[in-house]
Amino acid sequence: MSLKDFFNKKRKYATIPSDREQPAQMNSGVMTKCPQCRSIIYTKELKKHKMVCISCGHHLAMNAHDRIHFLLDEETFKEYDPEMSSSDPLDFPEYKEKLEKDRQKTGLNEAVVTGEGYVSDCPVVLAVMDKRFRMGSMGSGAGEKISRAIESALEKQRPFIMFSASGGARMQEGVLSLMQMAKTSAALKRMDEAGLLYISMMTDPTTGGVSASFASLGDYNFAEPKAMIGFAGRRVIEETIREELPEDFQTAEFLLQHGHLDRVIPRDQLKQELSTILDLHHCKETAEGGE
């Protein structure tokens, strides 16, 4: 066999997939690959570390119920409106099918889970977005759930904690999705007038209409490390202003440096940080007095 024939010969041995070829289902099985350092980690071990990479500290996506579980005191969570979901007001092509597919995939009926519970014995109301459901997009169902949670916090005189993770307003619902920006912001205005505490925690990503409404209205605006936060996409902005943006543009660290955030808080420090803030605002005493 000539050297040319040797190299042209079809290989019959298996190859290890490249990063681009790596099967996506790895992240939902026994092992998970860190998208930043490419380390392969046992999923159970990763969950013990709150979905933070053991090798490089990268914060991987966390679903809503896991986030609630690690934040709230054990067995204190009471969910609000678990059956609520968006309809298909515009009869948008294939929208119903996509909603049903996400319901089956995630076990959720909407892109946000709301409810009440306790953080270090302090009663709170919270809403946690889950980007597995329509990329956390805000439709009429998600906006209604968040607004109801805020109204419950107002009624019960409790702090409200919001975890954002969203690609923005849900295009399949048109202007009805955009209306949720005003509705949630108006509910937060009523909370502010009542002197109640609102803590906003932005996770990766927090973009579009969500970043331009309730996500940026906290008494405290926090974010997880390296979370992408912004309204329009990087490419759109660069083409509009005809300038090249900094490499770290729209990261949590960039926004902190430019005064948009109060702090960037690693996930494993979050509960302690929130507990300290709630204590500073005398939330336990306020709740006990109100109840």
Question: Can you walk through the features of this model?
Answer:
With 291 residues, the chain is α/β, with parallel strands linked by helices. It folds into two domains: 14-60, no CATH class; 62-290, 2-enoyl-CoA Hydratase, Chain A, domain 1 (Alpha-Beta Complex). It has helices at 3-8, 43-48, 64-71, 95-106, 140-156, 175-193, 208-211, 234-241, 252-257, 270-280, 283-290, and strands at residues 31-33, 40-42, 78-80, 112-119, 122-129, 160-166, 198-207, 220-223, 229-230, 263-264. Strands 3, 4, 5, 6, 7, 8, 9 and 10 form an eight-stranded mixed beta sheet that branches. The chain has a two-stranded antiparallel sheet with strand order 1-2. Helix 5 (140-156) runs parallel beside helix 6. The radius of gyration is 22 Å and the shape is globular.
* Structural shape: globular
CATH architecture assignment name of the largest domain: Alpha-Beta Complex
Q: SSE string, helix = H, strand = E?
A: HEEHHEHEEHEHEHEEHHEHH
CATH class of the largest domain: Alpha Beta
SSE-based structural type: alpha/beta
Low-confidence stretches: 10-25
- The CATH topology name of the largest domain reads 2-enoyl-CoA Hydratase, Chain A, domain 1
Indicate how many domains the architecture comprises: 2
Count of strand segments: 10
Distance between the termini: 87 Å
Subunit structure: Acetyl-CoA carboxylase is a heterohexamer composed of biotin carboxyl carrier protein (AccB), biotin carboxylase (AccC) and two subunits each of ACCase subunit alpha (AccA) and ACCase subunit beta (AccD).
Zinc finger (C4-type): 34-56
EC number: 2.1.3.15
Protein name: Acetyl-coenzyme A carboxylase carboxyl transferase subunit beta
